[in-house]
Amino acid sequence: MSIYDIGRVCVKTMGREAARYCVIVDIVDKNYLLIDGTKVKRRRCNYKHLEPIDKSIDIKKGASHKDVLEAIKSANLEDLLNSMVEIPTA
Q1: pTM
Q2: Among candidates 88, 90, 87, 78, which has minimal Cα distance to 9?
Q3: Helix/strand number for the chain, H first, E second
Q4: Where do the domains of the chain lie?
Q5: Multiple choice CATH, 8-82, 3.40.50.10380, 2.60.40.1180, 3.20.20.10, 2.30.30.30
């Protein structure tokens, strides 16, 4: 079991959706994961561009966008996934 398991909540660190929270939906291969979220489009993402956090939700592999949103609501993580990571500035 790795830290990049299905249902793990992560933060995107690169790209136009950087600093947004997302959920891992599927593992494509050794370099890519399928992610989805409330403010993140469902897409393939390199695991190097994600930072996993300690929270996870209960979804099945390849869950639809609707199933992901329902699991987020049932886990009471709506506020977290709709927010962005605060980056401190000196």
Answers
A1: 0.91
A2: 78
A3: 2, 5
A4: 8-82
A5: 2.30.30.30
Any residues with CB less than 8 A from the CB of 85 and at least 6 apart, and which?
11, 19, 20, 21
Which phi and psi (to 5°) does residue 74 adopt? -70, -25
* Closest of 45, 40, 15, 12 to residue 29, by C-alpha: 45
**Residue 38 corresponds to which amino acid?**
T
Taking only the tens place, the pLDDT of each residue in 43-72 is: 999 999 999 999 999 999 999 999 999 999
Segments in the chain forming alpha helices (H): 65-74, 78-82
